[in-house]
Specification:
single chain; alpha/beta; Beta Polymerase, domain 2; six-stranded parallel beta sheet; 3 domains; 15 helices; Rossmann fold; about 400 residues; 8 strands
Amino acid sequence: MTVAPGDLPKALHGLASASHLSESVLLSTCNRIEVYAYAERFHGGYADIRELLAVHSGLPPETVADELYSHHDAEAVLHLFSVAAGLDSVVVGEHEILGQVRDAWQAAQQEGTVGAVLDPLFRRAVEAGKKVRSTTGIARGIASLSHAAVALAQQRLGTLAGRRVLVLGAGDVAAGTLKSLAGTGAADIAVANRTPERAAAAAETCGGRAVSLAELEPALVAADVVITTTGATDIVLEHSDIGDVMARRGGAELLIVDVAVPRDVDPAARELPGVTLLNMDDLGEFVQQGRAGRTQEIDAVQTIVDAEVERYLAEASAREVAPLIAALRARADRVSTAELDRHASRLTDLSEAQRAAVEALVHGVVNKLLHEPTVRLKDAAGHARGDRLAEALRDLFDL
């Protein structure tokens, strides 16, 4: 289901052309694929999104439907703010997700698929994510997927000091992995990537070395730990590839931590003697073990998120009220002007001053009648009562 960065514009335009979607943002990370949309009709919009994901993944729509979850209105806002805050991540409080939410929003801006609804929503979500990290300790300790991958390897081996580590990939997760490896005392850190220049640049950040794909098999034979992070859409290390490597290792065991989505390593490789293959599920279990000690921070973050969501919803409701009030006053002005025009022949004997007084009287009465309803509507904005009043106003005056 993952949408690669290069495929994101096409996917966004696919959403933009859907019948029931007005705005959309697509967030695709190593642990989630989510579409945030402003839909004209809920069920129609849901079907449009399901269809796009089915076409993209090459899966039957009914198979995709079994894996979907959905939130709408206030629950959707709460979900996005929780994601940006790191509460919905494998590594609670991770800092990478905030940048990924921002990138998804900016990509949608560039493709023109966000507007008056999703643009302010994502702006406030990113602001809330920053506030959470600056005012709580949620990001202390293991605060990224890449950091967790290195910590899991350390737990399994006792230490990485003196070990030889091979990292596949040179993207953001690889960069975080190399940063975490720098302080472990690893004897050798090698980076393999299909682009030699990127591999060299990544290796330089941790005092490691780059290896070409032609040197990948010897590097695998020499490594104690392999951490895979590529963005490849197909398996990079097949069962047979690892089997050939293990045959040349003289019985030495190999730990592989696969944090790529889609997977870099054939899951069947875990059946090979001497191979320990860990994936995102193992990483999730490892991180969950340390979550209990951070409960107090999680509660503090949830309090901030709830307050930020409530503030956003109040502001969003107020934004919706302003044009409604403007429409009501415009309707009243049209009615007043039409009535004055209709009775113009009866006012011909009046002087300009008298005619102006009559017009001021008519408009004044209308404004007095509208004053109390508009004040009450503004005061109630952001609450359920405000929504009820707004809906009643739309129905009563056909706005």
